[in-house]
Amino acid sequence: MDAVFTWITTYGYGAIFLLLMLGVVGLPIPDETLLVFSGYLISKGTMHPLPAWMCAVAGSWCGISLSYTIGRTLGLGFIHKFGKYIHVTEERLTGVHKWFDRMGHWVLFFGYYIAGVRHFSAILAGTSGLSFPSFIAYAWAGGLLWVTTFLTLGYYLGENWKQIAELIHHYLLYVSLAVLAAALCYYIWKRRQQHGGQS
After folding, report:
1. What is the rounded distance in angstroms from the CA atom of residue 112 to the CA atom of residue 90?
2. Do 161 and 36 contact (CB within 8 A), yes or no?
3. More exposed terminus of the chain, fewer Cβ within 10 Å: N or C?
4. Which of 36, 50, 13 is closest to 155 using CA atoms?
5. pLDDT value at position 19?
6. Which has the higher per-residue pLDDT, 185 or 90?
7. pLDDT band for position 30 (50/70/90)?
8. Residues 62-79 as b or e (16 or more Cβ within 10 Å = b)
9. Where are the domains of the chain?
10. What's the pLDDT at 86?
11. Angle 108-67-110 (CA atoms, 0-180°, nearest 5)?
């Protein structure tokens, strides 16, 4: 984590853009802590608010769009070639697409706040064939809100930013685990319902 702080203090706005882009794609970078720290630097006058905000937004947008592109290109090719070996069929892919039509857009929007979800939701969106305009409408809006939230938080926390950032990091981890557990329970319940209906 100290290396992230060093990058930002040394390379400034470019580091915010690059690190956020890589973090959103899925590299182990503490994105929320990075944003809170950047907000703190803004409050100290070390960084100017507008370029810091613009670089953070651009980094999150580029990262989430890259994840979508991976799903749209490599994901589909992988499923068409190897899907039958991992029980992912065209029928199931169609089902995922319909799920995105119903509620997947909101997962793209709120997924930024759940650790490990943002890049997977974007890859899944690309794999399901969700159109790029629909993707950016939700994913980019979510990124805009996410960046603004944590930069503002860091700005107002002042010297207490580090302690609060650590609490946020742990809190988001627990929320992520709870969401994943709920999703797993829902999946098991749906599978049992389907098998029950077929018998």
Report:
1. 28
2. yes
3. C
4. 36
5. 94
6. 185
7. confident
8. bbbbbbbbbbbeebbeeb
9. 2-198
10. 43
11. 15
CB-based contact 154:46 (threshold 8 Å): no
> 53 burial class (0-12, 13-18, 19+ CB within 10 angstroms)?
buried
Instruction: Pick the closest to residue 16 from 28, 39, 137, 27 (CA basis).
Output: 39
Count of alpha carbons within 13 Å of 179, Cβ hemisphere only?
15
Least confident of 28-37, 42-51, 56-65, 168-177: 168-177
DSSP string, 105-134: HHHHHHGGGSTTTHHHHHHHHHHTT--HHH
Q: Which of 25, 23, 86 is nearest to 7 (CA)?
A: 23
Residue type for position 157:
L
Cβ burial, residue 82 (10 Å; 0-12/13-18/19+): exposed
**Angle, to 10 degrees, between the axis of helix 13-25 and the axis of helix 49-70?**
30
pLDDT tens sequence across 110-166? 777 776 667 677 877 887 778 889 889 989 999 999 999 889 888 888 777 676 666
Entry field: residues in the chain = 199
H-only helix segments in 26-99 = 31-44, 49-70, 76-82, 90-99
